[in-house]
Amino acid sequence: MTDHKASVERSSEHEGNSEPLQIGGRRVSQKRSQIRVEALLIAADQLLQTQEIADIGIYDVAHLADVPPASAYHFFPTKESVFLALADKYLQELHFALAASMNAAVIERWPDYIQSRYDAAVAFFNGRVAARKLLLGAVVGSDIKNLDIADIDRYTAAWYDEMNMIFVMPYVKDAHLKFTVLIGIYDGIWQASYAKYGHINSEFAREGLAAGLAYLETFLPKTIALRDPSSRS
Q1: Do 105 and 148 have their domain in common?
Q2: CATH of the domain at 117
Q3: Which of 119, 96, 113, 95 is nearest to 227 (CA)?
Q4: Which of 12, 43, 197, 207 could join 65 via S-S bond, C-beta 3.0 to 4.6 A?
Q5: For residue 17, what pLDDT is reported?
Q6: Once rounded to an integer, what is the mean pLDDT over residues 82-88?
Q7: Quick check: 117 and 98 in contact, CB under 8 A?
Q8: 148-153 long-range contacts, CB within 8 A, separation 24+
Q9: Nearest 5°: phi and psi at 21?
């Protein structure tokens, strides 16, 4: 219990200036409530380190978090709702990790950009057991699947524009659809690796990148000019 409370305290300090939490469409603005929600999410994450989703109940999460069950049920009426919130948290962290990994100064070709993002995503999942179980595992609820689909839709909608900030991108017909297919290629290979090994192993990671680049080459030219760094916004 001491380790769990320490994790909550570190998380609270780190997020002391964060916006109010959004749980199930509700804003959680009171500091005490935010601390309890964060404790429940950390507990759910810790339980997923050694147990499967099907074996964890909301009471288990509340007990580990040292939160009264009534309070836990107030924020998360079902165990599916706590795992949905945790999956959403991981998707946000994934995007932060992808943004942090991007160093435009060292990118010379568009495959460099793709590999940078790809390697960061693989490292993110391989470093987080719970994220793999929630987002790559087969035993997830429809709500988490729908959350993931909506997140992919938002992310891929902006992908072309982001590349266009670094490169002088050509016109790509149905760019949103094409980048969505790219994520589908990655996900399928990562999920297959997770099902077999419990993580994205080096062979599957290599093949996933190769498959993605091969697909991109069907609609992107081999060479795309870089923008002048001074003109990038």
Answers
A1: yes
A2: 1.10.357.10
A3: 113
A4: 43
A5: 45
A6: 94
A7: yes
A8: 148/87, 148/91, 151/91, 152/180, 152/183, 153/180
A9: -70, 150
